[in-house]
TrEMBL record:
Highest rank taxon of the organism: Bacteria
Top-tier EC class: oxidoreductase
Name of the protein: Pyrroline-5-carboxylate reductase
Location in or out of the cell: Cytoplasm
GO biological process, one term: L-proline biosynthetic process
Catalytic activity as recorded in UniProt: L-proline + NADP(+) = (S)-1-pyrroline-5-carboxylate + NADPH + 2 H(+); L-proline + NAD(+) = (S)-1-pyrroline-5-carboxylate + NADH + 2 H(+)
Keywords: Amino-acid biosynthesis, Cytoplasm, NADP, Oxidoreductase, Proline biosynthesis
Xref: Pfam families: F420_oxidored (PF03807), P5CR_dimer (PF14748)
Annotated pathway: Amino-acid biosynthesis; L-proline biosynthesis; L-proline from L-glutamate 5-semialdehyde: step 1/1
Gene name tied to this protein: proC
Binding positions (NADP(+)): 9-14
Keyword Cytoplasm (UniProt): yes
Entry annotated with the keyword Kinase: no
Length: 271
């Protein structure tokens, strides 16, 4: 068990998922995790789990060797301003706010040598199935980067990516759960409304197919084009469906949606 202290500024769903993973893995003792939030109810919740709680962000920063900024991008400036006098270069700051870059955090805090690790997690962390992109930059020591990765590995799988590509990875993990939910909803609604299929049964069948298909795509040596071809018999129903999607512009719609997602990350972000 490690002796590092980990603090969280903001105790929303994502922070709770990360903390739940740490608790379950035993990576650090419960008392080595500190939480700061404006909600007294949230603080009481974490205190009952054996964690340190703080009503003042500066006190949480003093406590933590690894400080997580688990707030929305729109709140980041106020948080950084409140923390500026408490941050020191021996700390590691971890940001899960979309679009907020490591250079911007250093500049706002006035700490050009600070180790900052930007991370793009996703909501399946809540069930221990997260897909997490951890941004690596030249100023972060390998052991610090590894420890941040270990924190997220307790709730899912981790990939390390150059920090300047985190906005581009958002469609693949951060936003893709909602894209998948939306895709599933369109299918189930159509099957129910147009063909009278029970919506719940359609959802369960479609979701089970998603699980099985994902496992097949992740199998060693699997090729997505080959998997498509194996389902699409000549003149059959599946190829007719794919042709229908293409005819109505599905490839262009996907490209357009991904671009809109990445563009919005840059709009929200701080360079």
């Amino acid at each position: 068990m490690n002796t590092e202290t980990i603090g969280f500024i903001g105790a929303g769903n994502m922070a709770e998922a990360i903390i739940k993973g740490i608790d379950g893995s035993g990576l650090v003792p419960a008392a080595n995790i500190g939480v700061c939030d404006i909600s007294s109810q949230r603080l009481e919740h974490f205190a009952a789990l054996g964690h340190q709680t703080f009503s003042d962000a500066g006190d949480c920063a003093k406590f933590a060797q690894y400080l997580f900024l688990s707030v929305k991008p729109q709140q980041i400036d106020d948080v950084l301003d409140a923390l500026s006098s408490q941050i020191h270069d021996d700390m590691v700051v971890v940001s899960i706010a979309a679009g907020i870059t490591a250079p911007y955090i250093r500049q706002r805090l006035g700490r050009p040598q600070l180790q900052v690790v930007p991370v793009m997690p996703n909501t399946p962390l809540l069930i221990g199935e997260g897909a997490v992109a951890v941004g690596r930059g030249p100023q972060t020591a390998p052991q610090a980067l590894q420890f941040v990765g270990d924190i997220f590995a307790a709730s899912g799988k981790v990939w390390y990516i150059d920090e300047d590509k985190l906005n581009e990875i958002i469609p693949a993990n951060g936003s893709s759960p909602a894209f998948i939910y939306f895709y599933t909803k369109l299918f189930c609604d159509c099957l129910h409304q147009q063909y009278g299929i029970d919506r719940e049964m359609a959802k369960e069948m479609f979701c089970q197919t998603l699980i099985g298909s994902a496992k097949m795509m992740l199998a060693p040596g699997a090729d997505i084009d080959d998997l498509i071809a194996k389902v699409c018999s000549k003149g059959g129903t599946t190829i007719a469906g794919i042709d229908g999607f293409v005819e109505k512009g599905m490839p262009q719609a996907v490209e357009h949606g991904i671009k809109a997602c990445v563009d919005r990350a840059y709009e929200l972000g701080k360079k």
